[in-house]
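Much of what follows relies on a compact textual record of a protein's fold. Each token is a code from a learned vocabulary of local backbone shapes. The record below shows the convention in full.
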Amino acid sequence: MKKILLIDDNDTYTWCLQKYLQHRGYPVKTACTLKEARAAIQEEIPLVVCCDLDLPDGSGMDFLDEVRATDKEMPFILASCHDKDDYEQEAKRRGVTLCMDKMKGLLLQDKLVEYAYRQLSGEKKKTLTGRGFRALSCITD
């Protein structure tokens, strides 16, 4: 079964999000650098990518470009603690599916579950609706 690929250098945040998604029944692969993310994608095409904007070895925006060069349809969520107004327009121009504020943890978790569900169900819709999922929410720095 394809996995959700979480790319973030904050171990606590990644652990919380991974546990939430696994509890909902979704397999998860994690990476803390772009190098690890590239290796993960070479190993298996993910169901959904959720990538931090700022990583130790590069930008999530640049990784978005790499993914879009080979796959225009894969759901790609760019998550950051930065104000979305600072990067969202550029990310949309580059083909991001969704930009999310990491500090709104439960909302991000719900959107990841929704995208994963749609991919597994074969849905190709890009519009989102609320699902009302409730589960553990982790607070990070």
About this structure: The chain has one domain: 4-121.
